[in-house]
Amino acid sequence: MARTPSNMLPLGTKAPTFNLLDTTSDTYKNLENLQGAQGTVIAFICNHCPFVIHINKALVDTANLYLEKGINFIAISSNDIEKYPQDGPEKMKSHAHDTGYCFPYLYDETQEIAKAYDAACTPDFYLFDNNLELVYRGQMDASRPGNGLENDAGDLIHAMDCLLKKTPNEAAQKPSIGCNIKWKPTNLPS
């Protein structure tokens, strides 16, 4: 199991826009239509990564709670489905249903959106304010498969609470750790 850290996009970065296939509805959706009134969490995930499987329940529970507070969640999978067919759109759709995703699960076929966000691993989290400016990036919490720490989404929840209260987030923002994004040979990061 690879342990790849986030690249930590600079705070204040404007969210790169996109128009991607939502595998849960079989329609194309864009960032402007999906953003939340108070903020937006964008999570790069995939079906098969053990790090994502480890956080799925906490992700769904947290999303359900914060959707009611005006923070929308968007999940994006950018993996190369030729080498990793278990991450293809049809399997994404059934995975989202089986896991109870309450948010769109988008397919980044060209991997251009993962590159635009400088995403490196799954899971990789980004929190944007209501102006789509980055206020948090990194880990959901310090729990990893096998480390015995509670998967409570603490880091992400703290960042969202700070955003909602309009108070500075003074907590250290730590990179997420997970499996590397499975890049197509033509898209390998330099």
Describe the overall structure:
The structure is a single chain. The chain is built from five helices and ten strands; from the N terminus they run E-E-E-H-E-H-E-H-E-H-E-E-E-H-E. The protein has one domain (about 5-185): Glutaredoxin. The chain has helices at about 30-35, 50-65, 90-100, 110-115, 155-165, and strands at about 5, 20, 25-30, 40-45, 70-75, 105, 120, 125-130, 135-140, 175-180.
How are the strands of the biggest sheet laid out side by side? 3-2-6-5-4-8-9
Strand content: 15-25%
The largest pleated sheet is described as: 7 strands, mixed
Query: What is the CATH architecture annotation?
Result: 3-Layer(aba) Sandwich
Question: What's the CATH first level?
Answer: Alpha Beta
Average pLDDT for all residues: 95
CATH topology: Glutaredoxin
Strand-and-helix sequence, N→C?
Answer: EEEHEHEHEHEEEHE
Which bin fits the share of residues in helices?
A: 25-40%
| Uncertain spans | none
| Spatial gap, N to C terminus | 22 Å
H/I helix tally = 5
Report the structural category. alpha+beta
As a whole number of angstroms, the C-alpha radius of gyration is: 15 Å
Instruction: Specify the CATH homologous superfamily.
Output: Glutaredoxin
